């Protein structure tokens, strides 16, 4: 018994001295001191010994366990000390060196697009207006000729607040405020953040950016609308783009149109962003509905106008070939630092 315990102890100590890391130490501990380890297995045979032999064997076993435990603790401390020293060496900082300074940032791609469109329209006599992101139901829906049973009022599209207000679903309420505040003749754009209760995917976000535009004057026609839209697209994309104009229904314009642009990511071949159609709905537009003018305090018998809306977020994706809208608000500096 005594010679067997001595041999086990020496073998264990030798393995501890030769351990390459903490994993090796743990393997020794489990094999020697674990519940099913060799030393515990020996203690199960003590019932076969007489009282005097059992006491002597127990003392020898405890001495072997203590020796192995002490060696494990000492070797573990060596590894931890070496790891700490290596970390301190790798993370060492010379506090006497000059500070690196503030890391410069860069404009967000949506901010770049918004600034360019603002410059373009202000050069054509338009005023840039803003409005609150928490709106009334009247400004967001009623004053824009959106009836109570319109799907846009459904909970799946709109974030409603407990007091009856809502997070604006578009920047069109700024048009209502602009008409009442400035009156005709009027040229205005309204960029800003909007919110919709959307399921997030590569082409949809619950929070994104839009820009609304409106022109009200004595004689305004569809020809005026098309001219400004072509000027806008040429300024944004800095090249000719393929577009198509389709009839579209929007409660706040009559007649209404959908101006689509051929997807610049896939060239019309189809991709997740354009839902494999090759086209992106870019510019809902049309002549302002008389009811909207009337609710904005403008006489539709004397004045007329056009209005349009576009997604700044989607334009940024087209300009910079971004195939996932979630990147724009993800906060990843590796992505944002490219612009």
Quaternary structure type: single chain
Q: pLDDT below 50 for ≥5 consecutive residues: which ranges? A: none
Write down the CATH topology of the largest domain.
BirA Bifunctional Protein, domain 2
At CATH's second level, what is the architecture of the largest domain? 2-Layer Sandwich
Q: What is the helical fraction, as a range of percent?
A: 40-55%
Residue share in β-strands: 15-25%
Round the Cα radius of gyration to an integer and report it.
37 Å
Largest sheet: 7 strands, mixed
Average pLDDT: 84
Q: What sequence of helices (H) and strands (E) makes up the elements?
A: HHHHHEEHEHEEHEEEHEHH
What is the strand tally? 9
The coarse overall form would be elongated
Strand order of the biggest β-sheet = 1-4-5-9-8-7-6
Give me the secondary-structure category.
alpha+beta
- In CATH, what is the homologous superfamily of the largest domain? Bira Bifunctional Protein, Domain 2
- Tally the structural domains: 2
Q: Counting H and I runs of at least 4 residues, what is the number of helices?
A: 11
Query: Alpha-carbon distance between the termini?
Result: 76 Å
Description:
- Helix 1 (2-17) packs parallel to helix 4, helix 2 runs antiparallel to helix 4 and helix 5 packs across helix 10.
- The chain has 339 residues and is an alpha+beta fold.
- It starts with a helix and ends with a helix.
- The chain folds into two domains: 2-90; 109-336, BirA Bifunctional Protein, domain 2 (2-Layer Sandwich), CATH 3.30.930.
- Strands 1-4-5-9-8-7-6 form a seven-stranded mixed beta sheet, with helices on both faces.
- The chain has helices spanning 2-17, 22-33, 38-43, 51-90, 109-122, 137-140, 173-182, 222-237, 290-295, 312-320, 333-336, and strands at residues 127-128, 134-135, 166-167, 186-195, 207-217, 243-247, 253-262, 279-288, 304-311.
- The longest helix is centred in the N-terminal third of the chain and has 40 residues, at 51-90.
- Strand 6 and strand 7 form a beta hairpin.
């Amino acid at each position: 018994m005594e010679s067997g315990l001595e041999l086990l102890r020496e073998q264990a100590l030798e393995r501890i001295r030769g351990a390459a890391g903490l994993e090796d130490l743990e393997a020794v501990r489990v094999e020697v001191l674990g519940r099913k380890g060799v030393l515990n297995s020996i203690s199960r045979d003590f019932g076969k010994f007489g009282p005097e032999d059992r006491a002597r064997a127990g003392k020898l076993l405890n001495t072997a366990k203590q020796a192995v435990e002490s060696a494990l603790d000492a070797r573990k401390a060596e590894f931890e000390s070496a790891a700490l020293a290596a970390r301190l060496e790798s993370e060492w900082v010379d506090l006497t060196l000059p500070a690196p300074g503030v890391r410069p940032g860069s404009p967000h791609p949506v901010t770049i697009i918004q600034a360019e469109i603002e410059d373009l329209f202000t050069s054509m006599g338009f005023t840039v207006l803003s409005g609150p992101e928490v709106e009334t139901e009247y400004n967001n829906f009623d004053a824009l000729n959106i009836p109570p049973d319109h799907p846009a009022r459904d909970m799946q599209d709109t974030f409603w607040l407990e007091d009856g207000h809502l997070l604006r679903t578009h920047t069109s309420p700024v048009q209502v405020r602009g008409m009442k505040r400035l009156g005709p003749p009027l040229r205005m754009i309204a960029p800003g953040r909007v919110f919709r209760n959307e399921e997030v995917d590569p082409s949809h976000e619950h929070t994104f950016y839009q820009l609304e535009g409106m022109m009200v004057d004595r004689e305004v026609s569809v020809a005026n609308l098309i001219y400004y839209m072509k000027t806008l697209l040429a300024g944004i994309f800095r090249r000719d783009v393929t577009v198509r104009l389709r009839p579209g229904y929007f409660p706040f314009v009559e007649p209404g149109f959908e101006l689509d642009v051929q997807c610049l990511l896939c060239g019309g071949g189809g991709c997740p962003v354009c839902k494999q159609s090759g086209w992106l709905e870019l510019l809902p537009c049309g002549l302002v509905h008389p009811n909207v003018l009337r609710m904005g305090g403008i006489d539709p018998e004397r004045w007329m106008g056009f209005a349009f809306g576009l997604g700044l977020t989607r334009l940024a994706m087209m300009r910079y070939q971004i195939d996932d809208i979630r990147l724009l608000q993800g906060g990843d500096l590796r992505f944002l630092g490219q612009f």
